[in-house]
Specification:
14-stranded mixed β-sheet, alpha+beta, 14 strands, 401 residues, Aminopeptidase, single chain, globular
């Protein structure tokens, strides 16, 4: 199928790089597999959840019945030298206020940042906004379910929206637990724990060692046992509270197939806590640029009093630097997660909703104000809930961001 390309030029110093932007109403990652892989490699701080391997696996399973749209931005360097420099996948919702382009939610991505070549960041953002502003048939509202607010993309996007006469709103701010190698030595994490947390970790390991041989295992890249480890993870998760609550991967055929397909990805890393050769806690993690993201965690509830999941998370925090290319460990969780008590660093995130002005449409401030009401109400409700929890439990993890 052929798609029309809209040209968008941007002045940059003495040169004039030319960007070609297209909007595909139906997009499948398999159509541009190699281009997406090349872009993910160049992006450095890439969002692997929009990368080729993850997205193909998702579209063949959990997103098989859900149409995916995408903005694609190419840098035109002359005949036969066109290169993909920006990829923004999402789904369109036709709301009463105005059509909305919601960045793709695969159910497992902890944030919604497009794949963009860092050398072309401003050009890509301008190309997307320029096209959305000029064409009435495209959505005028952009909804990023969760963005790292200090990231280069977030800062550029928020600034350029204003430059195009649009408005932004940030709702649902929260802090995600993380470990950043730049802020301290991960091997000293235990020394930075509270006395209660330090005792819990030390006591848990000692108690488990009295029951049998304890060891930690990591499978990544092309390790031959990784696929089997993922299969065992599905069983372990289904036997716990996620299984009874019908939220385990194996509870639905498409999510189980998705996990097994993802096992073939080099980005997937499986961490396990073993007791006498059996996994009593396991996690699925994804490497993305210089970050390692937590995706799924499961543990054997028979050993719940020894906190095997927490022990595994602490071990991962202490050893993730075995890969010198990984500098940040991101839990991928929402606000109020118990890892706030164990991982010392924080990543500020929030939902970003932006609106651009289109000829003949309702003013952007009014449009965005009406559209963001449900999110603002939900955010205030969560804050009230967390303040009540903080008052009755005294647990700092419930302190509003």
């Amino acid at each position: 199928m052929a798609y029309a390309l809209d040209s968008w030029s941007m002045m940059s110093g003495l040169s004039t790089p030319r960007y070609l932007v297209e909007y595909r109403r139906r997009f499948h990652a398999a159509e541009l597999l190699q281009e997406l892989r090349d872009l993910e490699f160049r992006a450095g701080q890439a969002n692997c959840f929009y990368g080729a391997d993850f997205l193909v696996a998702a579209q063949e399973t959990i997103l098989a019945r859900e149409p995916v749209s995408a903005f694609l931005v190419w840098r035109d360097n002359g005949p036969d030298l066109r290169r993909l420099v920006g990829f923004m996948p999402g789904q369109v919702r036709n709301l009463a206020v105005a059509p909305e382009f919601q960045l793709l939610d695969t159910r497992y991505n902890p944030y919604y940042e497009p794949l963009i070549d860092p050398d072309c960041l401003t050009g890509v953002v301008d190309a997307v906004l320029g096209l959305a502003k000029e064409r009435k048939d495209l959505p005028s509202i952009f909804n990023f379910g969760s963005l790292v607010l200090g990231s280069p993309f977030a800062e550029t996007w928020l600034k350029r929206i204003i430059g195009f006469g649009g408005v932004n709103r940030i709702v649902g701010r929260y802090h995600r637990p993380a470990v950043n190698a730049a802020t301290g030595n991960p091997t000293e994490i235990k020394d930075r724990l509270s006395p209660k947390a330090r005792y819990r970790v030390k006591h848990g390991l000692r108690a488990l060692s009295e029951l049998g041989e304890v060891r930690f295992e990591s499978l990544s890249g092309t390790d031959p046992g990784k696929a089997q480890a993922v299969s065992e993870f599905l069983v372990l998760e289904s036997l716990g509270w996620k299984g009874s609550g019908r939220t385990a991967l194996v509870c639905q055929a498409d999510t189980a197939r998705f996990a097994l397909k993802l096992a073939r990805s080099r980005n997937l890393r499986v961490e396990r806590l073993m007791l006498d050769g059996q996994a009593i806690a396991a996690s699925l993690n994804l490497t993305s640029g210089r970050k390692l993201f937590g995706m799924k965690m499961a543990y054997d509830e028979t050993y719940a009093k020894h906190s095997p999941g927490t022990l595994l998370a602490m071990h991962l925090a202490e050893t993730f630097q075995s890969n010198p290319d990984v500098r940040v460990l991101d839990s991928g969780t929402g606000g109020g997660h118990h890892l706030l008590r164990f991982w010392p660093d924080r990543i500020e995130c929030g939902r970003v909703i932006s609106s651009v002005s289109q000829p003949g449409h309702c003013p952007t401030a009014i449009t965005l104000g009406l559209h963001s009401v449900p999110f603002v109400v939900k955010d205030h409700a969560k804050r009230v809930r967390d303040m009540v929890r903080l008052h009755y439990t005294g647990n700092a993890q419930y302190r509003p961001a």
